[in-house]
Amino acid sequence: MSAGSFYQRDRRWHPPALSPAYKTSVTRSPQRALVALDNTLSEMTGPVFGQETLGPLDDDMIRNFAKDGDPIGPRIIVHGRVLDEDARPVPGALIEVWQANAGGRYRHKKETYLAPLDPNFGGCGRTLSAEDGSYRFRTIMPGPYPWPNGPNDWRPAHIHFSIFGHGFAQRLITQMYFEGDPLIWKCPIVSTIPDRAAIERLIAPLDLANTVPMDARAYKFDIVLRGRRSTLFENRMEGN
Amino acid sequence: MVQSLDRLKESPSQTAGPYVHIGCTPNVCGIEGVFPRDLGAMMLQPETRGERIRIIGRVFDGVGIALKDALVEVWQADADGLYPSPQETRGKADPHFTGFGRSAGDMTSGEFTFDTIKPGAVPFKNSRPQAPHITLWIVARGINIGLHTRLYFGDEETANAADPILSRIEHRSRVPTLIAPRAMEDGRPTYRHDIVLQGEKETIFFDI
Ligand SMILES: [Fe+2]
């Protein structure tokens, strides 16, 4: 297993800490330069989660909270692969997801949107990537929702993703959007990402080939985590 | 034109938003019965080796208000300085310690708490030791990309003074933002460690 340090993160590709159109970032963004830290074991290692972490319905948000029937909303499958920057599969990556229900309402005490809760929808799920990096889960299509930022800002339909790779330096949280949603290009959170090509990497296309006929449409969402150097050369330079 | 490196770009980060707890600590926010327990809620088992310690802190914004919607994760070595990870090649870490903790913080005070053990020293390059430390990762609404920082221990003055990372920090006045003082609280060694996102006492965050 190759276990070197990770390639430097391209900070110009990611959103900057301060993006004034997303108002909450104004007081929550560090202003000093980040201090560069060459990866040590503390960053190259990371927690490992096995199949024993998961329950049988963790990857099925249609069933994992259901009380007396299926949740309301279009049934979908989200699937894809977790790869690193060298296009190598990342097996055993823990993927946690959360989302609003079909009406755009989250199951959360602090949520005030007037759309109703769905008694059969919790909104959280998780899964582990397989040996080839592939993963999948089943859910319902989340609805767009308004949020307090500008006087009339709406989030495009989205699913939040949290991903653990093999090293803590790979830790990533992002959001998946759906092909064709006009709100994507009007959203101040999406627009924190400076490069249109980077935004497009978060938009999952409809995948008709993997659709289950008469049941659920599929969306394909590949995730790329940081790649890492081979240890061969690093060890030599360190003189170990 | 030159040949292509054929490298992919990392998926860009997006904020964890205000409802990160639904996905990462659902039991804390009232979504019960989906996951039996929240990931990283318990770092210790009775058999875990090492000195029991508690870490308490809050995350402050640039106006001095404590965040109530943050998620703090910690990653640390065991009492011997070994990581419970397949990438650890120096030996086998304590099988009764996961090294990973996650705290949603208290919904009203924003205070996060980790009951853990004090980690041993971990080597730097060329086998030089680093002072004992814990890696922290912070996400929240308004944070566009997760913030990496470290906690060092106030009672490790000699090790801290020799630490290759701490000693390299140019702005010496900022170093204390990484060091948590030790005190006895409720009969347990406790390290208070606040994180300041912005302003005069801004915590040092790392580009790792
Ligand atoms: Fe959201």
From TrEMBL, chain A:
Keyword Oxidoreductase belongs to the record: yes
Keywords in alphabetical order: Dioxygenase, Oxidoreductase
Residue ranges of every copy of the Intradiol ring-cleavage dioxygenases domain listed in the record: 45-227
Single GO term (MF): protocatechuate 3,4-dioxygenase activity
Coiled-coil residues: none
InterPro entries in the cross-refs: Intradiol_dOase_C, Intradiol_dOase_core, Intradiol_RC_Dioxygenase, PCDO_beta_N, Protocat_dOase_b
Protocatechuate 3,4-dioxygenase beta subunit N-terminal domain location: 7-40
TM ranges: none
GO BP terms, alphabetized: 3,4-dihydroxybenzoate catabolic process
Domain of life the protein comes from: Bacteria
Record-listed E.C. numbers: 1.13.11.3
Similarity comment: Belongs to the intradiol ring-cleavage dioxygenase family.
Protein name, entry field: Protocatechuate 3,4-dioxygenase subunit beta
TrEMBL record, chain B:
Keyword set, alphabetical order: Dioxygenase, Oxidoreductase
Domain Intradiol ring-cleavage dioxygenases: 55-83
A single MF term (Gene Ontology): ferric iron binding
Gene3D superfamilies: Aromatic compound dioxygenase
Top-level EC class as recorded in UniProt: oxidoreductase
Enzyme Commission (EC) number: 1.13.11.3
InterPro entries membership: Intradiol_dOase_C, Intradiol_dOase_core, Intradiol_RC_Dioxygenase, Protocat_dOase_a
Taxonomic superkingdom: Bacteria
Protein family per UniProt: Belongs to the intradiol ring-cleavage dioxygenase family.
NCBIfam families hit by this protein: protocat_alph
Descriptive protein name: Protocatechuate 3,4-dioxygenase subunit alpha
Organism in which the protein naturally occurs: Jiella flava
